[in-house]
Design brief:
Elements: E1 10-11, E2 17-18, E3 23-28, H1 29-32, E4 47-55, E5 65-72, E6 76-77, E7 80-81, E8 96-102, E9 105-110, E10 116-121, E11 126-129, E12 134-139, E13 145-152, H2 159-164, E14 169-173, E15 179-183
Antiparallel strand pairs: 1-2, 3-4, 4-5, 5-13, 6-7, 8-11, 8-13, 9-10, 9-12, 14-15
Length: 193
């Protein structure tokens, strides 16, 4: 006879990871103002997104994986859609998978030359992210946008590289609810829509 146990971590119907080992963080507007074209007038304590992450065992062991969920609030900043900070991996050989859980949005991607493009993200969509691509999530909908992720523990986050070579486009929600993608005015790189 074998022992059957319950998992130590679970995904709730609200797409939150829960369990003793789950790390939870929130990004407030006060932390995110610098990412937007115009800072807007949201209160500093507005929660822009929440991140849930989990690693089983030794998180420095080669081949070990992280699992996580990011939930972006349905807010705009002076019309610009809510987005994550965006990053490359410190270890460029590490790939990542995203999968849509709820809501709708975009996965913005950028290669090391600055070429920028995006993929639609929706419940059930699966996205392969090459380690040489910067990536950012953008909520284009009117409800929370939840995206699951799986990536190598040794991937790391390289935010400085995105500060030096910003994404080549910004995404706005118009008053009629339509979405517009506007190319950034910067040197180098191209935007693919």
């Amino acid at each position: 006879m074998i022992e059957i146990t319950d998992p130590t971590v679970r995904l709730t119907l609200d797409h939150e990871l829960v369990g003793e080992e789950v790390q939870v963080g929130a990004k407030l507007f006060s932390d995110a103002k610098g990412w937007y074209l115009h800072p807007g007038c949201l209160p500093d304590e507005t929660v822009m997104y929440r991140v849930y992450s989990y690693t089983e065992g030794n998180n420095t062991r080669s081949g070990n994986l992280n699992s996580g969920v990011t939930i972006l609030s349905p807010v705009t900043v002076a019309g610009e859609c809510n987005m994550t900070r965006g990053h490359w991996h410190e270890e460029r050989a590490c790939v990542e998978f995203y999968y849509g859980l709820s809501g709708t949005g975009l996965l913005m991607l950028m290669d090391e030359s600055g070429r920028t493009w995006a993929e639609h993200v929706f419940p059930g969509s699966v996205h392969h992210i090459d380690g040489h691509w910067a990536h950012r999530l953008i909520n284009t909908g009117d409800v929370d946008f939840a995206v699951g992720a799986c990536w190598g523990c040794n991937a790391g986050h390289d935010y400085r590289a995105v500060e030096q070579l910003p994404f080549g486009a910004r995404v706005f929600k118009e008053k009629d609810g339509s979405i517009s993608v506007v190319a950034e005015n910067r040197q180098g790189g191209e935007v693919t829509q």
